[in-house]
């Protein structure tokens, strides 16, 4: 029978061998100072010579506890004793909901770590089998499906946090907390105890202290059984994702919108699955089932002349030209008109962006060139009373008609930047490019070039 020491060493050895890549020589431990991450760091420090990897540790200072500075100093001292390169950083949390504070701190911690480590780094986390049990039960309480009941993935990518390729690992998910504590005691490790872990106002702590002792007393193997269930749910979700990816490839357009006619050929269940997958591919958290159930009647099957909006949190489902879009909720842009007075840069109101004005040095491909001597320049937003005649167009039309011709979605129209000279639109900035007026004159030598800054 393996001792706790041998079980943890064997688990890590097996995991590292299975994940080893020739170009990967660095492992970073997310080191909180608690017993789980301390055991992980200590065990890896004993394996680094055998496997030939460099070992690093990062400690994130949340500032939530009065002992945060003490924990930071403790982690630094531990790394000095183990001869492990140590790095620390602070994050600031602003939150009024106590029940979501743990999630807020966790997300901030992972994001900061992903920012600090080099591209293609491998970050090891100390979560174990009992943590997996808690996560599974919390997801069960929330009514999650296979994806949620997969609980914590053993490996996951952090692209959605920073855009950087960083891989997070949880190599101890098959190891019990009892084995971790036994290892720590055997090696006489000293670790930090977070006093907030005793606060049962937090859901996870309530489970840990009030519920799990009763369940595990009745069913000692519960954590192992739930771990297997989570693994089976993860396998089911992987199969669902494979099918969803195939279906999505036939529905998704270059601008990430979905073909509604194609969606409506699917069953309601598959519509929900594909939409969830579509959102996940864009790093967007899926809405509740109640919101998804409104998608079909309220948006996909709305009247042809309707402009439906289905909103959850900071996102909206929108429909245009028989395509389904998901967009960030935007503040309404009020009609705006103001004169350019010679600044090099103009920051536009309501987070629309900025315009850069230069007398030379900007390629015409990146901007629009105008004659300063011809007349003053006005910058306008969300004003549609003028007509416009693009280059090579036979006739001018009201701006709203051009939006229909160009199929500009309603939510983008208020953010179209208009440059106006002598009460005529000389250029429009739409979807990352300038559309120039046929009436734009370039006969004088005194010219300026204006380009867009996001």
TrEMBL record:
InterPro entries linked to this entry: Lysidine-tRNA-synth_C, Rossmann-like_a/b/a_fold, TilS/TtcA_N, tRNA_Ile_lys_synt, tRNA_Ile_lys_synt_N, tRNA_Ile_lys_synt_subst-bd
Residues engaged in binding ATP: 32-37
Domain of life: Bacteria
Enzyme Commission number(s): 6.3.4.19
Pfam families: ATP_bind_3, TilS, TilS_C
Every Lysidine-tRNA(Ile) synthetase C-terminal domain range: 379-436
Record bears the keyword Transferase: no
Subcellular location: Cytoplasm
Catalyzed reaction equations: cytidine(34) in tRNA(Ile2) + L-lysine + ATP = lysidine(34) in tRNA(Ile2) + AMP + diphosphate + H(+)
GO molecular function term, any single one: tRNA(Ile)-lysidine synthase activity
Keywords on record: ATP-binding, Cytoplasm, Ligase, Nucleotide-binding, tRNA processing
Cross-referenced CDD domains: TilS_N
Keyword Ligase: yes
Main location: cytoplasm
Family of this protein: Belongs to the tRNA(Ile)-lysidine synthase family.
Entry text on domains: The N-terminal region contains the highly conserved SGGXDS motif, predicted to be a P-loop motif involved in ATP binding.
Chain's role: Ligates lysine onto the cytidine present at position 34 of the AUA codon-specific tRNA(Ile) that contains the anticodon CAU, in an ATP-dependent manner. Cytidine is converted to lysidine, thus changing the amino acid specificity of the tRNA from methionine to isoleucine.
Name of this chain's protein: tRNA(Ile)-lysidine synthase
Gene expressing this chain: tilS
